[in-house]
Request: fold
Amino acid sequence: MADAILDGHSAPALAVRLALPSVELYERVSSTMDLAHTAAARGAAAGTLVLANAQHAGRGRAGRRWSSPPGSGLWMTLVERPTSPGGLDVLSLRAGLLVAESLDALAADRVQLKWPNDLYRRGGKLGGILIETRWRDRRIEWVAIGLGLNVAPPENVEWAAGLASGVTRLQALDCIVPALRSAAKAEGPLTLDELSRYAMRDLGVGRRVSEPAAGVVAGIGATGELMVDTPTGPRAFRSGSLVFSEGR
Reply:
């Protein structure tokens, strides 16, 4: 860990630059999420960031795993310690919205959102967010906010996207970390303003889908549910994956 460097910056230098209490920077790991949980269990402060130049067993929703090539993106998990669970139900959506907004300038496009946790650019997947919470006696101990982002598009992956040419990982970090920290501090359901901003980026709205039910996406609700107009009427879904009938 001590010798790892990201865009010329060591872990202590990144902590200063990003105004964080601690940064753990690794060259190659299995999963930053696992390391963040370990750090949090040791008492890591809110705002502790775990980063890796590459990871070989990163995970997403439903236990999906993938390998992340070195140097081409950000593979990171942020530890936060909310004082109440008021915003947890929509944290993935709120984090996605704030990250997307923060990345528009670096993407040279409006970054889009696919319920419940994916970032897209020009129809290609740019990144994803994963939230894992640890509890003790009905009290939140910590939340781990994992994010994988393609800064440069992966080679030979047609459905993936990256940020604009020439953007560095450090530039992306400068945008993402404040966005995630702001999302973690927010409480309550999505506001009308947040819902309006999300709708402007919603990749699914108006499109025909086969999952989580056959129908047409109508949007999202204030508590994070996906709304689908089905042949038998409107339905709301709080879990599952969004699969477009016409493909990605």
Summary: The chain has two domains: 11-191, 204-244. The two ends are 37 Å apart (CA to CA).
